[in-house]
Design brief:
The complex is a heterodimer of chains A (about 300) and B (about 375). With about 300 residues, chain A is mainly alpha-helical. Chain A folds into two domains: about 70 residues, no CATH class; about 210 residues, MetI-like fold (Orthogonal Bundle). Chain A has 13 helices and no strands. In chain A, helix 3 crosses helix 13, helix 8 packs across helix 10 and helix 10 packs antiparallel against helix 13. The C terminus of chain A is likely disordered. Chain B has a six-stranded mixed β-sheet, sandwiched between helices. Chain B has a five-stranded antiparallel β-sheet with strand order 13-12-11-14-20. In chain B, strands 15-19-16-17-18 form a five-stranded antiparallel β-sheet, with no helix packed on it. Chain B starts with a strand and ends in a 13-residue tail after the last strand. The chains are: A mainly alpha (about 300), B alpha+beta (about 375). At the A-B interface, helix 9 and helix 10 of A face strand 6, helix 2 and helix 4 of B. Bound molecules: adenosine-5'-diphosphate and magnesium ion. Magnesium ion (MG) binds next to helix 1 of chain B.
């Protein structure tokens, strides 16, 4: 009775089981690595091919260039237009900057309204918002185009970011509303007792707690805008206003013989900002709500 | 530092559920008022209407001489401490404390002076540069207290501030809060407090007066002693005190109380209080007010006896109902299971409740 602890001997795990477990791990990781590589291969190939000569690109399926060259990058950067690729990056930046910033601001405002206030027709309005999520994009393209044409906004960046400044991206609003619903209201009530009005509560209390979600929103918006091809294609006609996504296509259009290595090089460059931003923001991405956690 | 008056206060929620049924309550200047009642009796709702966090659907709330019904919470001169502390997670303790003052655009020196003072009173100086997530529950609660204190409000509102703490910490925080209240009074800054809890021990030990609520109605408002000695109805009688008061169903005829086939002659003192009342009734006697085998009383069979060292808790079957008595430890020897014993009420401590649960044996106050 007294020495119940000693009665249970520490049975050593038989070596056979250890070996089996190890083998299992090896198999599992090999499988994962192989599948991962297969999925990543196009990207790896893209990076490798961007250093190949034009003739080699279609020569082999391998990704290691035989005679690595920077020619694709140098020539691709210069482009066949009067502008360098730097100009196009700058243009993309000019679209992305207002778009991500205003998306964050407007979506936070609207989500705060839906998540925290009672007002007439709230349910109907929220249902409408969700309904626009399900609406195919193409449906609104033409009416939107006509609208912006009549406003004289064609060939400017306004049609590309102004809708986002009015919380036009229902998905982000929805995402933030869900996030807010999970945050207890106590802190906001404490702020109101402390004398904050609704806007001060939003700015000083809600937004700091929303930061992880807002970063996700901005990240998504950044990547989607970076990749958006159709929008700029429809609204922009002057080459000097083209963003990267259009400019990549441009080099295919205008050069007599396609210089694939230039296109691939510029594609690699076009990928970089998104990658860099993603890795920088990853921490917040993962941190999630735990950062604003409440005990109890 | 103001009195709080509540007049016919009502709350109907959006789903047309009526949570508060026209309550009236006066909290005096500098008084510590405890709202107590079982979970769901609308204590929080009432408190939140005082705070302005919940809209008032009927009646009035007055702080000082102002009707505050339409004022924003920040303009009512109140401070509130929440159950979950509700500290701002992204601000250091220092900024948590001074958030309200900064919103009011108080001067820097003023903010620093008051932060330092509150930190000193609550002994949270070493915590000033920490984030809320780096605090223990007790520390977080003290910071939450500090955030209320720093505003020097007219009325302090507490919503179950201790229920997230473990028992030991709860007991010490209880004392700390009462002491703080007393100390502020001594220093010439009396603070009016409305303190919500579901824990009757907290209510009894902290309140100058206690307001017992049930289902959105006030059952009784009185100081702890009155509440204990002269409960206005069976609900208060059962809610206050531990173990619960025995409520024995029976019939009162003349000076005899009949339970099953037993009859108990009530003491003359109780008959005076009853002033000739008779009918179907419940006899209420606290477990602490029963004596073992001491003359006429109610007979029953011992169902169990819990020996606690300094006392014994006796469970007795009396004519089909269960009675509980708290007896001196010396009585333990006589309490074999199944033994037949008699319990008699101590004089002056029994109550009689009528069919509507009202206490019909309250002494006439003059
Ligand atoms: N927002 C609300 N909508 C509808 N009913 C509510 C709401 N909040 C509370 N209630 C109801 O009101 C009653 C009182 O709630 P509450 O004041 O929180 O009780 P307590 O704090 O005494 O436990 C409960 O029955 C509760 O279900
Ligand atoms: Mg409550």
């Amino acid at each position: 009775m007294a020495d119940i602890t000693t009665a249970i001997p520490a049975t050593p795990v038989p070596p056979r089981e250890i070996r089996a477990a190890r083998l299992q791990a090896v198999v599992r990781y090999t499988l994962l690595t192989v599948v991962g590589l297969i999925m990543l291969y196009p990207l790896i190939w893209l990076i490798g091919a961007s250093f190949k000569t034009n003739s080699e690109i279609f020569g082999s399926i391998g990704f290691l260039p035989r005679e690595p060259t920077l020619e694709g990058y140098v020539k691709g950067w210069q482009t066949s237009t009067p502008y360098t690729f730097g100009r196009f990056f700058w243009n993309t930046f000019l679209i992305i900057l207002p778009k991500t910033i205003f998306t964050a601001i407007s979506c936070a405002l609207v989500a705060y309204g839906f998540a925290r206030f009672e007002f007439p027709f709230k349910r109907v309005l929220f249902a409408t918002l969700i309904a626009t999520l399900l609406l195919p994009n193409v449906v609104t393209r033409i009416p939107q185009y006509i609208l912006f044409r009549d406003m004289g906004w064609l060939d400017s960046y306004l049609p590309l970011w102004v809708p986002s400044a009015f919380a036009g991206d229902a998905f982000f609003v929805f995402m933030l509303v869900q996030f807010l619903r999970a945050i207890p209201r106590d802190m906001e009530e404490a702020a109101r007792v402390d004398g904050a009005n609704s806007l001060q509560t939003l700015v000083y209390i809600v937004v700091p707690m929303l930061v992880p979600a807002l970063i996700s929103v901005m990240l998504f918006q950044f990547m989607w805008t970076m990749n958006d091809f159709l929008g700029p294609l429809i609204y922009l006609s002057s080459v000097d206003k083209f963003p990267v996504s259009l400019a990549l296509k441009l080099s295919i259009d205008t050069t007599e013989a396609f210089d694939w290595n230039r296109i691939l090089s510029m594609s690699v460059l076009a990928l970089l900002p998104a990658l860099v931003v993603f890795f920088m923001a990853q921490k917040y991405f993962i941190e999630g709500i735990s950062a604003g956690g409440v005990k109890g | 530092m103001a009195r709080l008056q509540i007049r016919n206060l009502e709350k109907t929620y959006g789903n047309s559920f009526k949570a508060v049924h026209g309550i009236n309550l006066d909290v005096r200047d500098g008084e510590f008022m405890v709202l107590v009642g079982p979970s769901g009796c609308a204590k929080s709702t009432t408190l939140r209407m005082i705070a302005g966090l919940e809209s008032i659907t009927g009646g009035q709330v007055m702080i000082g001489d102002t009707v505050v019904n339409r004022l924003q919470p920040g303009k009512r001169g109140i401070a509130m401490v929440f159950q979950n502390y509700a500290l701002y997670p992204h601000m250091k303790v220092r900024r948590n404390l001074s958030f309200g003052l900064r919103l009011q655009r108080a001067s820097r020196s003023e903010i620093e002076r008051r932060t330092a003072e509150v930190a000193r009173i609550l002994e949270i100086e070493p915590l000033l540069d920490r984030l809320p997530k780096e605090l223990s529950g007790g520390q977080a609660q003290r910071v939450a207290l500090g955030r209320a204190l720093i505003k020097e409000p007219k009325v302090f509102l507490f919503d179950e501030p201790l229920s997230n703490l473990d028992a030991k910490l709860r007991a010490s925080m209880r004392v700390r809060i009462t002491e703080l209240h007393r100390r502020l009074k001594d220093e010439g800054m009396p603070s009016t407090v409305v303190y919500v809890t579901h824990d009757q021990t907290e209510a009894m030990t902290m309140g100058d007066r206690i307001c017992v609520m049930k289902d959105g109605r006030i059952m009784q408002v009185a100081d702890p002693k009155t509440l204990y000695d002269r409960p206005a109805n069976a609900f208060v009688a059962g809610f206050i005190g531990s173990p619960e008061m025995n409520l024995i169903e029976g019939r009162l005829e003349g000076s005899t109380f009949r339970v099953g086939d037993q009859s108990l002659t009530l003491p003359a003192e109780l008959m005076d209080r009853l002033r000739g009342w008779s009918g179907a009734a419940r006899l209420g006697i606290r477990p602490q007010h029963l004596r073992l085998n001491a003359g006429p009383g109610l007979r029953g069979r011992v169902a169990g006896a819990e020996f606690m060292g300094h006392e014994v808790v006796l469970h007795l079957d009396v004519a089909g109902t269960r009675m509980v008595a708290v007896l001196p430890a010396a009585d333990y020897a006589a309490l074999d299971r199944g033994a037949e014993v008699t319990l008699s009420p101590e004089p002056g401590c029994a109550h009689v409740f009528d069919g509507a649960d009202e206490n019909v044996s309250l002494p006439v106050l003059n």
